[in-house]
Design a protein that fits this description.
The chain has helices at residues 3-36, 43-59, 64-87, 95-116, 148-170, 172-182, 184-189, 194-220, 227-231, 233-240, 245-265, 279-290; strands at 132-134, 145-147. It has 304 residues and is mainly alpha-helical. The termini are far apart. The model has no long low-confidence stretch (mean pLDDT 83).
Length: 304
């Protein structure tokens, strides 16, 4: 392979690794939407709250794993409380009402995060090295460099995605979730408790926000700008399909890889730097003009 081809491959692989982290964020949106039809606008602030709680505890000399366990418990409880106090009372309201509830929840959690901790910028160190790995040391003909952090983050995010996929595909709770997402009334008719399923989904969303928050916090620091990382989940689910976990995975890989390639090879055409701020959204917009439901999205057929 030529030098140019190897460099493009290096950029492409780096983009795929970033895409796995985008996919993890997107899955949080998909789970809530699949189970209840609600788009969780507050997920970005939940992610920030998790990262801020963890880093604030570690800065107070709390052991790493103790801080992780405490934050994990906080996020699980937060998810359950949100479902019980906000989502459940509004279960029979319009989708617009439910969406606006998550908008209000977003600002409430933002104020809660500032009141509980602070609004300062925190450095987060998970102990994952960011030194490069020379792949040629293992594969002589493949002279490319990959960040250790990118690999570790992709493995952690990928492992969680795989675990969630297996959980919702093969466990009784997972099958109940799929039944609920297909037809709420039919699920209730066969005895599936919707409130319990929704509580589990919101608790799992809290765990996803914790893992994603720690990974993104290590990469870009912990501050209120961290919620911008979650916004990258929006074009991912638009591309892959709002109701599809495989779509979230594929969409994340596409957005991650195309974004990195665009930054390197197309940035000069658009005035230099800054392409990473809009590339994902433009890509998703162009795609949904061609396929509005996304790659794995299901078309809704209304019979009259």
């Amino acid at each position: 392979m030529g030098v140019f081809d190897l460099f493009m491959l290096e950029v492409f692989i780096g983009g795929l690794l970033s895409g796995v982290m985008y996919s993890l964020v997107a899955i949080g949106f998909v789970l809530v939407f699949k189970s209840s039809g609600v788009f969780n606008f507050a997920q970005g602030t939940m992610l920030l709250f998790a990262a801020l709680t963890f880093v604030s505890l570690t800065e107070r000399q709390v052991n790493f794993w103790v801080a992780f366990a405490i934050t994990l418990m906080v996020m699980v409880v937060m998810g359950i409380v949100i479902e019980r106090t906000v989502m459940r009372p509004l279960a029979n309201q319009s989708l617009l009402s439910l969406f606006m509830a998550t908008v209000g929840l977003n600002y409430f959690l933002e104020g809660l995060a500032q009141g509980t901790w602070d609004s300062a910028v925190h450095g987060l160190e998970l102990g994952i090295s960011n030194d490069p790995i020379f792949i040629s040391e293992y594969v002589p003909w493949l002279d490319i460099i990959i960040s250790q952090f990118d690999i570790a983050a992709a493995v952690i995010a990928g492992t969680m995605i795989l675990g969630l996929t297996l959980f919702f595909q093969y466990t009784r709770t997972g099958m109940s979730l799929r039944a609920v997402s297909d037809d709420h009334m039919a699920a209730m008719a066969v005895g599936i408790p919707l409130s319990r399923i929704w509580a589990i989904v919101w608790a799992v969303t809290g765990v996803i926000c914790l893992i994603a928050g720690l990974l993104w916090g290590d990469r870009v620091s912990v501050s209120f700008t961290l919620t911008a990382a979650v916004l990258k989940g929006l074009p991912v689910i638009l591309l892959g399909g709002l109701t599809s976990i495989p779509g979230a995975i594929v969409g994340g890989l596409i957005i991650g890889a195309s974004e990195k390639l665009g930054e390197i090879y197309l940035a000069d055409l658009f005035g230099g730097q800054g392409i990473e701020h809009w590339w994902a959204y433009t890509t998703a917009l162009i795609f949904i003009l061609i396929r509005p439901t996304g790659i794995f999205g299901e078309k809704e057929i209304e019979r009259v």
